[in-house]
Amino acid sequence: MQTILVCDDDKEIVEAIEIYLKQEGYQVLKAYDGEEALEILKNNKVHLLVIDVMMPRLDGIRATLKIREESSIPIIILSAKTEDADKILGLNIGADDYMEKPFNPLELVARIKSQLRRYTQLGNAMESSDCVYQVGGLSINDDLKEVTVDGEVVKLTPIEYNILLLLVKNQGKVFSISQIYESIWNEDAIGADNTVAVHIRHIREKIEINPREPRYLKVVWGVGYKVEKN
Question: Which among 4, 7, 11, 161 is least buried, having the fewest CB atoms inside 10 angstroms?
Fold first, then answer.
């Protein structure tokens, strides 16, 4: 049974999410501020975190930053704020998805399932098939789900890994933002520009010596992104 941690200072929201998740067979742990969430994560095996932005003691943004220092579990941020800047900030600090309040609980459950599928696929090593993709000093071992640059292991979130794998497996092919979003998120690319751009920037910061002059992950202006052929 997979365990979901739900963290929000509004107890009614936490209880409502808990009802829907339990109906789907998930175990639910509850926290009401970021400090409590960190403590629960330290002492329990959690497969995914749903966390609100505005909370007392430690807010969702700072909690996510702390979690990302040690863990790559999927994180979905909730916020009543609707500005793009807040969404970008959440994604930029390592969240995998973002939902605005008020939200449809069924949509949240669907997003949780989607993130868990990706995380499970990323964490389960397949039977060895020497499935290694190489571009210069960049190497992806898809059996081990490991990325290295010039021999150094690079830690990517599941979303970042899947985007990079898509581009590396199709070296030289240009993918539009919509194509990347629909391939990775498996949903229509409505308002996907900022979401994809933030993840691309994150990947570049991790795999490029100079993200402003990338060796691997190139932008094709007005078209999309590609990884150069070896």
Answer: 11
The reply to whether 10 and 109 lie within a common domain is yes
Q: Domain range holding 137?
A: 132-227
Q: Which residue has the tokens 């060895």?
A: 128
Q: Of 123, 152, 182, at which residue does a domain stop?
A: 123
pLDDT per residue as tens digits for the range 6-64: 999 999 999 999 999 999 999 999 999 999 999 999 999 999 999 999 898 899 999 99
Length of the chain: 230
* Predicted TM-score (pTM) of this structure: 0.63
